Description:
The structure is a homodimer of 270-residue chains. With 270 residues, chain A is α/β, with parallel strands linked by helices.
Amino acid sequence: VIAIDWGTTSFRAYRLDAAGKIVETRTSANGILAVKDFPGVLQQEVGDWKEKPVVMSGMVGSRQGWQEAAYVECPAGFEEISQKLLQVQSGVWIVPGLICRGDVPDVMRGEETQILGAGVTDGQVCLPGTHSKWVQVKGGKVVRFSTHMTGEVFAVMKQHSILGRMMEGRGDSFLEGVARSGDEGGLLHHFFGVRTRALMGECADPSSYLSGIVIGHELRAAGVGAVKLLGSPELTRLYEKAAAALGIETELLDPQAGVRALFELGRSLA
Amino acid sequence: VIAIDWGTTSFRAYRLDAAGKIVETRTSANGILAVKDFPGVLQQEVGDWKEKPVVMSGMVGSRQGWQEAAYVECPAGFEEISQKLLQVQSGVWIVPGLICRGDVPDVMRGEETQILGAGVTDGQVCLPGTHSKWVQVKGGKVVRFSTHMTGEVFAVMKQHSILGRMMEGRGDSFLEGVARSGDEGGLLHHFFGVRTRALMGECADPSSYLSGIVIGHELRAAGVGAVKLLGSPELTRLYEKAAAALGIETELLDPQAGVRALFELGRSLA
């Protein structure tokens, strides 16, 4: 099986042997935003690998990707997802994303694969990032989830708001931000406090303070009870730290788990 | 008296007769960010006006302005502010801003003048804008206030986040956003709902929906009881609409009130 995580800004391919062991890995900046000819880029990236099938997850299955793979409705687990794999050319398949209906729908593409691979049967999983996902799993199925734009809000406020002028700092004010997120006034007010504390010289490191504020807001709004964290070590370390400060129990899942799920999905096609 | 509202991006001057009546108004784009030689620009803008004194409020008194006028501590009213007017040249004065101490300090420059001029003796005033101010007034003094970065967050999310790609719309989804702001999940989650509703074709006008979400969050976090609105007609109209939906009583104050306060402050110098 060739497993591919094809996201917005990056392309990651894994060549797996018959036992599911990764024997080779390739990474490039050919995310979907940089690609027009998807079959061509796939050929160029891994055309010399002969394993079959090729199973891809992530934004490659979005409207801006190779071909749109219709969202699978929650609750959904391995079975529901494997039945809806979308073949885009001979031996090449896309894993569909999930949709969670409610007053306002929520969607994911790629995270469903990571959760499947992590082997979570019950509990709450958080996949932190640009668009953090909070996912409720029951009996091996994703029953519902919600997305928080934490990473993106942090980035745009830092780069494009007035707060960006005061991001120089030394030290770490992350936990002060996490504590602040519980004060009255709400997030829109807490943002302004980054400015005033920096103006008054009362904040050692405004950037980490801002990070603590947004992650603190996310955890308080989303987290009920224990949470399993699935993501890059840099991010999960921050979430662990914030969760500990808030008395939320955490457990780390293997961030490479998605590859395992792609392998299993590939085998289900045989 | 010559009254000047000298802000970040604009300069507004009013020539007042002895009775406090506006006899001439001038406006330019010479906000403090565009100015280096403050005495020179003042001379250029209103050097032909002979009234005295010149009383200025707004960001002209900030560190980036003509000269920093130290913040006056709350509680503060006409007396406390008039005692701390800063003379920057013969007959030319700057009105100091206010600071409200707490775990995290909050500051204003310019809004104190508007509130004084509006003649509010007791109650809650909201001055909506890039950085909305919520101000508690007792016995004619500002006793405390808090700032919400509502306008700026709306602008950066619209211009610089992924939501910006889906801002085309027809109609008005503002009140749907106000209602959404009361749902569980918090602001970081509600932002993502703008994307999903637009993706699914479920939102007639994503931009006004986003506006309703942030203003709704501001009102819910800041507003307790009735509120007096002081701002431009475009903004106060939105806040009135949101407040009505949330059952919050509103009253409109005169947005030109600041000029009256500058006149009174000028007379107190005589």
